[in-house]
Design brief:
- Two copies of one chain form a homodimer.
- By secondary structure, chain A is mainly alpha-helical.
- The first copy, chain A, is built from 21 helices and three strands.
- In chain A, strand 2 and strand 3 form a beta hairpin.
- In chain A, helix 7 crosses helix 8, helix 10 packs parallel to helix 11 and helix 11 crosses helix 12.
- The radius of gyration of chain A is 23 Å and the shape is globular.
- Chains A and B meet through helix 1, helix 2 and strand 1 of A and helix 1, helix 2 and strand 1 of B.
């Protein structure tokens, strides 16, 4: 092993220990911790974040990165090691321009904001969340400006954290294509709204029984309970401390069957990515997914391309009917498949169907652009939010809880994250197109055998962790870089057929 | 505020952040974490323990402690601050003589040992646990020898960590008194074993329903769900990150009603101690209990003096019968009270009645003395264990799982801990005697009002955290230092009456 790389390892190990502790603190806050603990935990998070910062932002690490970036040393590193150095350098650049005290303050603020946000969402009072949101935006803007070069668009720098290379230029083009194709398509679909009746979905499905079925679904898709756990939280999410400890949550509503099922499938898609990373990368900066876009591509692939397909449900629907014999006694497989694919504008992103989903993302993207270009103040956000929901989806949220307060991301200090949901959906369609050429996907699903699907994804994506950038990985798999046309074609064909347009 | 004390605060805060993270990692390992994560978590625990060590073991902290220990500075500190300095000094002395690398190695070993132990307990193979147990003992012996003065008994140094001042001299005397009184008493009781029939206890009580009732019990006794959570683990235990985040676990067996109920009451006793600590002490070395003996006094007071009393169950037994109407239909309150107090030698400490319980502790105490005096090797432990169980309790464990492997303490690196269970029981009896003189305890319980009990304990014990040493605290409350006579009298009177001796 390269001697400088060897010298780097103890820093990576220490850094990973802190990341594990911080991820566990965050997981615990969202799943279990008692309410009164929040402010104390936030303080601990601030302190530990600062200590973690100090491990990477030091002269020794800086010098090692510098040495390891030279042509001479690069030639002695394998591709994984090269990726580790590249990712570490990026992280170092991002962190080292932030003053230590500010980093701690921001970390503590994010932990506090989670709690403030959750309370505001419960009461629906945006004004209770607005002051801390302003602070979060200020910090984010300041941190981005620290690393900005002349002429950089601040929002581009934020986007770069979640999906390298996907600048506003790329995304403007992407969303404009989506808008042009989907808004008229949705209009046609809406006119035939009565074609699909999914009233069965709002019958009474006790959470306790949903829980068991969803656990079964995760295992069916390949979730490894030896290396992961399933819990519950207000918002479903997945987190991974490393590839041997991957955790997902769900949230069950007694009167909504789909919500729990598709959250389970979606989060399992995320979890399989993390579980599939090669052991050689465990605990290094390359030991997790390459980007949020690629991560979402996996969850949305499972949720939509797999989970909403007739083939997937052919072997499973009888089991679902056994689980809820009364509630589903008059629902046929065909009616169920139509139901879970019905397109209907609603206020909540996470409950959205495939067709309206990207429009929810577009709204957040446009708002974030306006926030960071200074065109929109925090105070103006709720009104602007509602206006855009009216413009794109024809609906007006009843209150802030189902409007501007519905998502936790901003409270976590994550700005520039949302677009990766739409990018992920588009990547999923691109991979799906290619996968169908390579393996008899539909046949496997009909046989009740999702193993080859997971293996395909593991061998082509998961195992590489963050070694290859998104576009490089896409090129390896599909022969081309990101291309949203597959997504537009997929949605158009799917909904044209479903609604007999 | 004293300026040196003020300079100390950031170190205390940082140290507390690490303690929180480490306690959470440990809690998570015992309640939720997936099996395959264990070895990775152990590594993180080792690293973070070392970092926590470095925060306290440094020249700055050493100098501040030295300054703050001077007469001049002590005079400017309040009693809580003086306690913080004293406790910190003790911790510093203990840690600073251990080389940093060894401390990390030991911390990682303890985390690993938990997993190895749990697997060995499942299979009943002591030989699988023996090698790591040897290592744990070696480390413990070495660490104690680092701080030993000429003539110190190593085991005394270990005991001192859990209960200051309770040396082998004190404990030999204590256990000898117990043995002299209890062994003949137990013999007489055993002869009348048929007097009490508790076959009802082994009927079918679904865990799901026990869970609800036990949660109710904890709340009834004063557990504050805003500052605490309840979960499940193989062994019931309580942990506290601070007084606003206190966590207890239980373990339910479908065919054992008592086990869950008395674990719930016992652990709630621990939890109330931690929740009752004054906010001024939160996050400082004085922010938790003074000792394990005092901690156990609270849990055993609730479990036995309160939880096994007729007065306690008078208002609650109807609710228990409502919860299990079929299973308890033929059980009267009197039969239940006799049942939960029945004395019967068994192999498992945590399931033991009040009378045989201290004998379980005595066995462990004697074994630990032999281990650290070098009279007994790890290999010889199972045989010696079984011999002592036969001598004192007249029973032979069926296998290692219900013998030498039944308790997790040694796997956590805790040697010298066990005696505090018996010390705690004796303290509980001493406090009970005094409390009955001060408040109409029985009346409150009969009325279904346990609040004054909790308030009494909070005002006299809990709120002080670790400010006063055990004997000082006992003197404040009861007018005398530790006195085991109350305990012996309590048990003798109770069992003489119950068995009509």
């Amino acid at each position: 092993m390269n001697k400088f790389y060897e010298q780097l390892l103890p820093y990576l190990e220490r850094s990973h220990a802190y990341q594990t502790a911080l991820a566990l603190l965050s997981w615990d806050m969202e799943t279990l911790a008692p309410p009164a603990a929040a402010e104390y935990t936030a303080k601990s998070v601030g302190i530990l974040s600062e200590e973690a910062y100090c491990i990477l932002v030091c002269d020794e690490v800086r010098d090692l990165i510098k040495k390891l970036s030279s042509k001479k040393e690069q030639d002695t590193l394998n591709v994984s090691e090269q990726a580790v150095v590249r990712l570490l350098q990026k992280e170092y650049k991002k962190l080292s321009c932030i003053p230590q005290g500010e980093y701690r303050e921001f970390s503590e603020l994010c932990a506090t904001a989670q709690t403030v946000y959750c309370r505001a969402k419960l009461t629906g009072k945006f004004e209770d969340f607005a002051p801390i949101l302003e602070k979060l935006i200020d910090f984010t803007r300041r941190f981005a400006s620290y690393r900005a070069q002349r002429g950089d668009n601040l929002y581009d720098l934020l986007l770069d954290e979640y999906e390298e290379g996907f600048t506003t230029k790329v995304l403007d083009d992407f969303f404009s294509k989506l808008r042009d194709a989907l808004v008229p398509l949705l209009k046609k679909v809406s006119e035939k709204n009565d074609l699909i009746n999914k009233s069965y979905n709002a019958r009474y499905y006790p959470a306790e029984i949903q829980r068991g079925f969803c656990r079964y679904l995760s295992g069916y898709l390949g979730f490894d309970f030896n290396r992961g756990v399933i819990a519950e939280s207000e918002h479903p999410f997945t987190t991974a401390f490393h590839n041997h400890d991957v955790r997902l949550t769900n949230h069950f509503y007694d009167n909504n069957l789909e919500s729990g099922i598709f959250s389970a499938i979606h989060e399992t898609g995320h979890a399989l990515y993390e579980m599939g990373v090669d052991d050689a990368l465990t605990g290094t900066p390359a030991g997790s997914s390459i980007s949020m876009g690629m991560h979402e591509s996996q969850s949305r692939f499972y949720e939509n391309m797999i989970g909403r397909s007739r083939e997937f449900w052919e072997p499973l629907f009888p089991k679902l009917k056994e689980t809820f014999p009364q509630e589903l006694h008059d629902v046929s497989l065909d009616a169920f498949i139509s139901g879970i694919n019905k397109a209907e504008p609603g206020p909540i992103r996470t409950e959205a169907d495939e067709l309206t989903y990207p429009l929810h993302i577009m709204i957040r993207y446009e708002l974030e652009k306006e926030i960071f270009s200074g065109k929109c103040t925090v105070k103006e956000l709720p009104e602007l939010w509602n206006k855009k929901y009216n413009d794109y989806l024809g609906i007006t949220p009843k209150n802030a809880s189902e409007g501007i307060l519905q998502d936790i991301h901003w409270a976590l200090g994550s700005f520039g994250y949302f677009p990766s949901y739409a990018v992920g959906s588009a990547i999923a369609a691109q991979i799906y197109h290619y996968m169908e050429e390579k393996i008899p996907l539909a046949d496997y699903l009909k046989e009740g055998n999702p193993v080859p699907v997971r293996e395909f994804l593991r061998d082509n994506i998961h195992k590489y962790g963050a070694v290859y950038p998104t576009n490089e990985l896409l090129k390896k798999i599909t022969g081309e870089e990101f291309n949203p046309d597959y997504y537009i074609r997929y949605l158009t064909e799917k909904y044209t057929k479903l609604y007999q347009l």
